[in-house]
From TrEMBL, chains A, B:
Family to which this protein belongs: Belongs to the class-II aminoacyl-tRNA synthetase family. Type 1 subfamily.
Short name of any one Pfam family annotated for the protein: GAD
Domain of life: Eukaryota
EC numbers: 6.1.1.12
Chief localisation class: mitochondrion
Organism: Phyllostomus discolor (pale spear-nosed bat)
CDD domains reported for this sequence: AspRS_core (cd00777), EcAspRS_like_N (cd04317)
Residues covered by the Aminoacyl-transfer RNA synthetases class-II family profile domain: 186-621
The protein's name in its UniProt record: Aspartate--tRNA ligase, mitochondrial
Gene3D superfamilies, alphabetized: Bira Bifunctional Protein, Domain 2, GAD-like domain, Nucleic acid-binding proteins
GO cellular component, one term: mitochondrial membrane
Cited NCBIfam families: aspS_bact, PRK00476.1
Reactions the enzyme catalyzes: tRNA(Asp) + L-aspartate + ATP = L-aspartyl-tRNA(Asp) + AMP + diphosphate
């Protein structure tokens, strides 16, 4: 009878943590093994345990072991499941009189208390193995136990199936970190960064150089945090990247630099951005664009987790102009089709007014995307929401056209288009009867941009209807190249600003345009895009002081005194150089499939820039400000009100 | 005739950079090879060269090579010496008519211009090899050449023998980095850190976790830079270390954490300190003091540069009390003797007043150090400077006594001591006739502290006289343990403050004293000392919330609301844990034998916290402060004057 009770209990063991957690724990132990191909790390060196909970297997049978862990769960004072970073193990609580004190310790300790137990690794009774648990063939028969720390209070249970708001997770981050998902994400991050370091240092002789974060403001560098110094009126700034320093390192002959660099950007409240973030920052001398691209491809290939499959290189490449024309964005998600097609020729003689108008203007065009089987999946309300999205977000008109004549939501205009241009449209778009076409018209860039957004909207809608469009296991890398060097300033379109930063070298084929039509000059900037997210960007830099000065002073009207050291450096034997910075947080977010970059950062800030655990930023006693010669200018009531309107105090997360 | 001219020129090639530079370049190429035992890194991958200048050897003879480098030096338009990060190589400028354009490029380019040359590696003519130059057996016969960038201005020559002030070096750091010494230091730093990472990640399963630098102020955390946020009156602080985060990671079950962490400390102007600095930060769960010590010994042994000889482990260990008694400091330089000896017993019946007085007081003692052969090396003016040092720095009296009766500078008191206690003193100190004894008396701690300082002063004096006392090739590691947990506050000696930080666990043997005599409690803190410098410190932490609260609230009278998150965390199943932080800048400074930590940092601040290259900190336009709701409180004239007295505007460096 006792053994059947045991069996029942055993079956139950896997349930509380749930299947997903089991899978994550399993992949965790797999990736831990992968991390050091040469030698398995000793995870119990220097400490008072012989083994981790999660590593015990049948191969340990008969061994006397000591493990430390958290009480995940206890069943009827007979079993205890202990957890550590590597997984779960079942512990059998002794029931005999002589071990009463051990039993008392293990039965009295609240869940999540920390204990150390010693005992023998034994087989589970036949039929009671748990194949879902990596340690499911064994259990520990306890001899001694010690309560290392009792858990007094828990705002939520440490079980993956327990849903928590993100605000609660951030407030109690030290508890949230115990989840299998956070353990997995942080460990994988550490391993991938280590692999990158190996590739850069060992394979290619890069030098890891730390650059300052207390520096001076960059020209045009809004969004830089300021730090008052002890000298009245003088401030350091926290740079957004080590850009100047890495270029100066090249001038200094360092040849190959990299740094896993902390960067800072004060953007106020923005979802899925962090005021401090991490870049894998790289710079090389005597390199061209192809060189940097090959380096990055090799780097990612080398660091890529084995269980995500091999990465094919070289990555495909499109120009900025092509990306805009086909995807309406400079960061296309190339996991699926639905590219934008120019159908202007089909509509040369259209009677539809808004198409006619568009085509009569310079740069005017009619553009379309084809939503495959849209007639089957998109409902009338979806079509309405697409129209509304276009109007709200882009202030533009979109015309959804179902190729199926019987489609009830086709508007009279859509019906007219189908009658007059239906065949041409179907031919141009290779459309089938069940497809839906979204048409828009207007200036090339605006029309493409709208359809680029609608392409993603439609992908969301189709996926919500169960169509598998974007494979979550697919990693579609893409280079985007040949960006414009300058853009018209948003607020003063007559003036130019750098499309990226003012140190970007112009495209060699366009140098001659710099003095005549600078707005037409392409740059040697390149972006690396993964699944529709920009995960890196870099360029070949200007190494000629005269050219740099011309661009800064004459074209951009910047105050060059802030950059006199850089201009001097370029005049002192600066080698040709270029580099890239990869956004590590975003990359890890995509690799782990996490919903937010906050899930791959140990202690992230909320979207309002708050540390919800420690309550930062916080008020300071006035005496703490005195050494820095600053005082708070409290906003007047009306200012404060205006402020709260622009940054409404939404609840966090 | 031409060949004899060649010979003369060849002989000269090594001279301009000098012998020391040659040695450094040689050790540089050696250590580069050492860095990756598994596989030699490819230093010319992805770029437009086939080889580095410094790597060419006889094994490359006959090869067509392309190298890029800086013109180090040109001799009579026949030879060019090119430099890159790996060393120097000699290039033969073609003299025939057909190659006139190549000759023009190479002869016209100013020194420190950047060129790319292609040609054949050939042997130097017999007798013209330069054994001092790693590439001295070969030269490159140039076919094509390209000027990549012309060097327009140089504030100083890039030659190691050219002496520059440090201010000039810092202002033109990008040029200073071209020196063999800076190249060596930064590359060795990168390599040692990489070795540490390998040891921690691959050998022992540590996880590299990045922790925030924008956080909130720590209780008692003066010296923290503040960063205004966009919320009026709310500030982030830059923490001095990731202390709280690493403890919270342990509570979060991360088990083994490390980070090469940027830390910040605003100490105003202090020589050889930096406002931002780097720690190798480590924390482990379920560990005791011995565990951390073994880990760090293994870590340093693994990362230690091969050419500095193997490190013996375990490192010796002394208690804080022993260190104070024998060396008068908690960071003894154990490369040499001259330990402090308590000679109170010798003087029980002394007639010398100041010794008598001291002995009559509680804790009073007479202490001595023996300066070996001091009579031979110390001149009268040295003895005067020793007295003056004691008076100026410690406000204490020191009595120098020459054992040799004939020593002319012995004072009447010294003579009296020699007559009465000479034999006892000689016996206690094992002193020889040529030795000098420095005597002082007073409270134990003060007397030891004075002699500790004089021990180092005397070492400087003896070394200035040519006595080899501290071997620059010796690395004397030492653990100092059993520190007091609390110290009396300097300004309010009735109150206690943490000797290190409030999270340090008390020594298990002294726990019972916490409620009765807290000032007597020793801690589980440990310092790692190298050649008289503290290069690391750590402790076992408090994991019990109740104990932590008692220490913070009752003993230290701190505001616990600032730490409520930490106290809550300790109550939520915190494992026992401990760790250490190694000061990477100081460690690298000692390993490289550099005169200052600024020589192992790519872009250091001056001792006044200035970036002399970029001119930071700097004034900001008022509109940059507006989003942060702060304004500058300009000091009044009298305040400014007072300020300039406390921080006189000494010229930089």
């Amino acid at each position: 009878m006792f053994s059947s009770r045991l069996a029942r209990l055993n079956r139950g063991v896997a349930t509380p943590t749930g299947r997903i957690a089991q899978l994550i724990w399993r992949s965790l132990s797999r990736s831990l093994t992968l991390s050091s191909q040469r030698r398995v790390p000793d995870l119990s060196s220097f400490v008072t345990r012989t083994n981790t909970c999660g590593e015990l297997r049948s191969s340990h049978l008969g061994q006397e072991v000591t493990v430390c862990g958290w009480i995940q769960y206890r069943r009827q004072n007979i079993f205890l499941v202990l957890r550590d970073f590597q997984g779960l193990v079942q512990v059998v609580i002794p029931q005999d009189e002589l071990a009463a004190s051990v039993k008392k310790i293990l039965c009295d300790a609240p869940v999540e208390s920390v204990v150390r137990v010693s005992g023998t690794v034994i087989s589970r009774p036949p039929g009671q193995e748990n194949p879902k648990m990596p340690t499911g063939e064994i259990e520990i028969k306890v001899k001694t136990a010690e309560l290392l720390n009792s858990c007094k209070k828990l705002p939520f249970e440490i079980k993956d199936f327990v849903k928590k708001t993100e605000a609660l997770r951030l407030q109690y981050r030290y508890l949230d970190l115990r989840s299998s998902q956070m353990q997995h994400n942080l460990r994988l991050r550490s391993q991938m960064v280590m692999r990158m370091r190996e590739f850069l240092c060992h394979r290619h002789g890069f030098v890891d150089v730390e650059t300052p974060t207390l520096f001076k403001r960059t020209p045009g560098g809004a969004k830089e945090f300021v730090i008052p110094s002890r000298e009245p009126g003088k401030f350091y700034s926290l740079p957004q990247s080590p850009q100047q320093f890495k270029q100066l390192l090249m001038v200094g002959g360092l040849d190959r630099y990299f740094q896993v660099a902390r960067c800072y950007r004060d953007e106020g409240s923005r979802p899925d951005r962090q005021p401090e973030f991490t870049q894998v920052d790289i710079e090389m001398s005597f390199v061209d664009q192809t060189g940097i691209q090959s380096l990055v491809e090799g780097l990612l290939q080398y660091a890529w987790p084995k269980d995500k499959g091999p990465l094919g290189v070289p990555f495909p490449s499109v120009t900025f102009a092509e990306a805009l024309a086909s995807y309406g964005t400079d960061k296309p998600d190339t996991r699926f089709g639905m590219e934008i097609v120019d159908v202007s020729d089909v509509f040369r003689n259209t009677e539809v007014r808004f198409l006619q108008d568009a085509l009569s203007k310079p740069q005017g065009a009619v553009k379309a995307i084809r939503v495959p089987e849209g007639a089957k999946y998109l409902k009338r309300k979806d079509i309405e929401s697409i129209r509304k999205f276009a109007a709200d977000h882009c202030d533009q008109e979109v015309l959804p056209v179902a190729l199926k004549a019987s489609q009830d939501w086709n508007t009279p205009v859509a019906k007219l288009v189908m009658e007059e241009q239906g065949r041409g449209l179907a031919r141009h778009l290779e459309a089938q009867e069940e497809d839906v076409v979204l048409l828009t018209a207007g200036e090339h860039r605006r029309a493409c941009s709208l359809l680029g957004k609608l392409r993603l909207e439609c992908a969301d809608l189709l996926e919500a209807r169960g169509v598998a469009l974007r494979d979550p296991n697919l990693f579609s890398f893409l280079w985007v190249v040949d960006f414009p060097l300058f853009l018209p300033k948003e607020e003063h379109p007559g003036e130019l600003e750098s499309a990226h930063h003012p140190f970007t070298a112009p495209h060699p084929s366009d140098i001659h345009l710099l003095h005549t039509e600078p707005e037409k000059v392409r740059s040697q900037h390149y972006d690396l895009v993964l699944n529709g997210h920009e995960i890196g960007g870099g360029s070949i830099r200007i190494h000629d002081a005269q050219l740099q000065r011309y661009i800064l002073e004459t074209l951009l009207k910047e105050d060059v005194t802030l950059l006199s050291h850089l201009l001097q450096a370029l005049d002192s034997g600066a080698p040709p150089h270029g580099g890239i910075a990869l956004g590590l947080d975003r990359l890890m977010c995509i690799v782990t499939g996490a919903p937010s970059i906050r899930d791959v950062i140990a202690f992230p800030k909320s979207f309002r820039g708050h540390d919800l655990m420690g309550n930062a930023p916080d008020v300071l006693p006035p005496e703490d400000l005195k050494p820095y010669h600053i005082q708070v200018s409290w906003p007047t009531d009306s200012e404060a009100e205006k402020n709260s309107l622009t940054h409404p105090h939404r609840p966090e997360s």
